[in-house]
Please model this.
Amino acid sequence: MNFTSFHFLGFFVVTIIIGHWLRNRKQRIFFLIASYYFYGVFEPYYLILIFFSTLWDYIAGLGIEARRAGVTSGLGRFHERTWLTASMVLNLGLLGYFKYTNFGLTILNDIHPLGDTIFAWPFLNILLPVGISFYTFQSMSYTIDVYRGLIPARKSLVDFALYVSFFPQLVAGPIVRADTFFQQLDDRLPIGPDDIVIGITRILVGFFRKLVLSDNLAPLITEVFLRHNEYGPLDVWIASIGFCWQIYLDFAGYTDIARGLARLFGFEFNINFLYPMAARNITDHWQRWHISFTTWLRDYIYIPLGGSRGHPVRVHLNIVLVWLFGGVWHGPAYHFVAWGLWQAVMQLVHRRYARTRLRAFLNEKGGLPYNIFSRIFLFFNLNFGFIWFRAPDMQVATNMQGRLFGGYQAYDAILETFRWMRGQGSLETALLHWQGPAGWSPRPSEYGVFALVLALYFVYELVFNHLQLEYFWKPENRSKLIILLTLLLFFILVFTPAQSPNFAYFQF
Model:
């Protein structure tokens, strides 16, 4: 079910009325049924998968705790590590089958001598369950935390199933930790007038970001990425920069709505986006962007690998492995691998630069010019990487990245260059791919107005990075809050496009 549908509006009204009327266990059972209905609307068979994964990790948590308590019968018959391994194998196995089977077959065909013939491995018709990456990570983190002794195993299957499937954050996050959820489930936050204001504000900001700021960019971006061969460098620059804002505002809008809904039900989920486009460097950016995901990578992959301890080569390898995983998590394709490795490269370069005297000098003496340059430089690098994220394959991504600098068919040029280095190709042909065919010239941009719009997006980001919503929730600023909410509602009603695409992160 999509947050932006009338179906969800009716579902929400019924759920919040009945949910607040019920109490204790009946309320939790109702929320669980509502969450399963919310998820089952996408595809009913998804419910079998999520319930099986939930039941398995629930049993694994009980088994770990039983064995730790000295029980050697029943669930305690198996060692804690055995239960943890079983949980990891099942979760990663399901995720691997549904999300990565065809990518694995692609790799096999690429390295197979007959991979481009009738003897190639055929692809399977597998329907990817919505949100499987999110609820798998969430469920796995619970089992790992029980194994580490950070939280006790939850005795109630209803409570644990609700943790995995709670509808505000089920299909696209934020990834909520078990200790946070269960603590608030047992000791619900009060819902007074101020809490209702906070929840409604977050929801309206989320719809504004999604429907007004993100969705109005979608047609331009889709057009240029779909027919990139017909557009010149200026068009590609505008479309790629536009996608940076589109994906950010789409995803941040979803989590704003999710956090607002959760607050109205008595839960407070941690912020997932903290104005990341206002960051000054890549490290700062990833401390603001999809925070629940980056902290998950840190706590469950980076630190267990050794983190920042040990020889610098090992630390650098840990960073590369983490972001390789992060890239593949986002999508089973080479261009997502490239995007993940690009994040690692940026992290490693900044890590080295941060230890130089030049950085210390510029931080002290650079002032406003250095502040502006660092933000522009970061945005350029993010923009370059996001082309991999948006493009359907490596060929389109490479060609568009080449067009940023006036190149024509960069992908073919690179392949021809490698063929020439092996003595099988022509350097002249490679240069022709870079320069384009005779008579080709970049098409003048028809979207010059978007340059001003994108600049205003950046101003919006800087302003709200400085103020943040907490400013409007102060009692002395209530008149400003009313003006803000009125403007948000006006823009949502007037500027929402007729065709609103689904939230982008549903595909992950």
Summary: The CA atoms of residues 4 and 207 lie 8 Å apart. The mean pLDDT is 87. The longest helix spans residues 80-111.
